[in-house]
Design brief:
This protein is mostly helical. It has a single domain, classed as Up-down Bundle (Bromodomain-like), CATH 1.20.1550. Helices cover about 70% and strands about 0% of the residues. It has seven helices and no strands. It has helices spanning about 1-10, 15-40, 45-65, 70-100, 120, 125, 145-170. α3 (about 45-65) packs antiparallel against α4 (about 70-100).
Length: about 170
């Protein structure tokens, strides 16, 4: 286990790690916008919340590229990344659960964002909900967007948790 944590400690402060996080986040946002504008699948409010969590990863990755080699900054970045991964997983699970009728629920057309963080008004082309929750389109091989997001977010929790633990571990 210590070898694994040592590996994650080295990976988590490497600019390549943050570049991969940045490119993954940009790719995910790009795919979402392609489905929205290219294929006509409008986002629901949960999809918008997922986009916000992914945007948090993008912003953290930019800071990580700039200052991620600093041990203290790295600790904060990994802790914030873990929080973003948990938020992403919660929203992804809710989207999946509604899609599969595992829970009774729906969502409104409002973004649910406070007035001081009105992304839906500041950048409606990216953050404005168009549809009610309940269904997500297929990505590849019959995997729905909700299923893909749930798998991705679970992976993000594992990676960010290991990076967070490794960043707080005393170095030998």
């Amino acid at each position: 286990m210590l070898t694994l944590l040592t590996a994650f400690s080295n990976i988590g402060r490497n600019p390549l790690y943050w570049l991969i996080v940045l490119l993954t986040g940009l790719t995910m946002e790009g795919i979402a916008l392609y489905y929205q504008y290219g294929l006509g699948y409008g986002p629901c409010v949960l999809c918008i919340h997922i986009r916000i969590w992914i945007m948090a990863f993008i912003l953290l990755a930019i800071v990580g590229l700039i200052g991620g080699r600093n041990r203290q900054i790295s600790k904060v970045l990994h802790l914030l990344s873990l929080i973003a991964a948990i938020g992403l997983t919660e929203r992804s699970w809710l989207t999946f659960a509604i899609e599969r009728n595992l829970i009774d629920g729906s969502c409104t057309m409002g973004s649910g964002l406070p007035s001081w963080f009105a992304l839906d008004q500041w950048l409606p082309s990216v953050f404005e909900p168009w549809e009610l929750c309940g269904w997500t389109p297929d990505l590849l091989f019959g995997i729905t967007m909700a299923e893909g997001l749930l798998l991705f977010s679970a992976s993000a929790i594992i990676i960010t948790l290991l990076n967070t633990i490794a960043s707080f571990r005393k170095q030998d």
